[in-house]
Specification:
Length: 261
């Protein structure tokens, strides 16, 4: 599998640059009651062996988080449980990784897309990352931005989860309430046995329980890493720069692979 690295087109005016700096410095502690965070990688990827904490933070949430994860026995939950969407996500990611690049990019993209839609409230995540500027955008701009963000999120999963290295992902028993949200504690156990804690802030809606934030070590919120990156590219009433950046990065992730035909 792959984790985040510097975008080849990175720098001023591109999402991801500030996120990488904060990930390296360990900043970005977040309160799960404040806003929401994206579960996607915002940086270009490179191959690595194993998952370090910095790489994992960059993925918090592709998926976020998430690294090549097998589903442990504790990760099998009731279909109606608050952690059921996470269990379904991990199962899909493991299957995606076991398929690897032998399966065409387009097939993997559309196969994992509905699972990501069920696991994450991408609309709430995007609104929280953009902030009050969202309300100044016209409906067509909001729709275009959400579509670009969704496609980038899914493409990040497909590219980052293309190899299985034996990691396992565990959903721990019990949740804690934060207001009306529920925080589900999980951990990634790497090949060398080192566990990394990841908490998911789950929110109930008409669509069921879905993740609105991912917290590394239980405190570092993805929203704190992503918020300034997105807001630097969006102006009141104008989302064109952020939309263009997300679209460029989606094309970069897909490479020569097409998922439109």
């Amino acid at each position: 599998m792959k984790t985040g690295a510097t975008d080849r087109n990175g720098g001023a005016g591109e999402i991801g640059t500030a996120a990488e700096a904060r990930a390296g410095g360990g900043a970005g502690a977040g309160d799960p009651t404040r806003g929401v965070g994206a579960p996607v990688a915002v940086l270009r990827v490179r191959p690595v062996h194993g998952l370090g904490r910095r790489e994992l933070l960059r993925l918090v949430a592709a998926g976020g988080v998430l690294a090549g994860l097998g589903v442990s026995g504790t990760a099998r939950a009731s279909e109606q449980g608050v952690d059921a969407p996470l269990s379904q996500l991990y199962s899909a990611l493991e299957a995606l990784m076991r398929e690897g690049r032998a399966t065409p990019f387009r097939q993997r993209f559309y196969r994992v897309a509905p699972v990501i839609d069920r696991a994450f409230d991408l609309d709430s995540i995007l609104r929280g990352s953009v902030g009050t500027v969202w309300l100044s955008l016209d409906p067509s701009s909001q729709t275009a931005l959400l579509n670009a963000f969704r496609r980038f999120t899914i493409a990040s999963y497909v590219v980052n989860f293309d190899r299985y290295d034996g990691e396992r992902f565990e959903v721990l028993a019990g949740q804690r309430a934060v207001g009306s949200d529920q925080v589900v504690q999980t951990r990634i156990v790497q090949g060398d046995g080192e566990p990394i804690r990841l908490d998911y802030v789950m929110r109930d809606s008409q669509a069921g329980w879905r993740a609105v934030d991912v917290l590394m070590d239980g405190t570092i919120s993805r929203v704190a890493v992503q918020r300034s990156d997105f807001r630097a590219l969006i102006r009141r009433g104008d989302a064109s720069a952020l939309i263009a950046s997300l679209q460029r990065k989606t094309v970069d992730l897909a490479g020569s692979n097409s998922f439109d035909s």
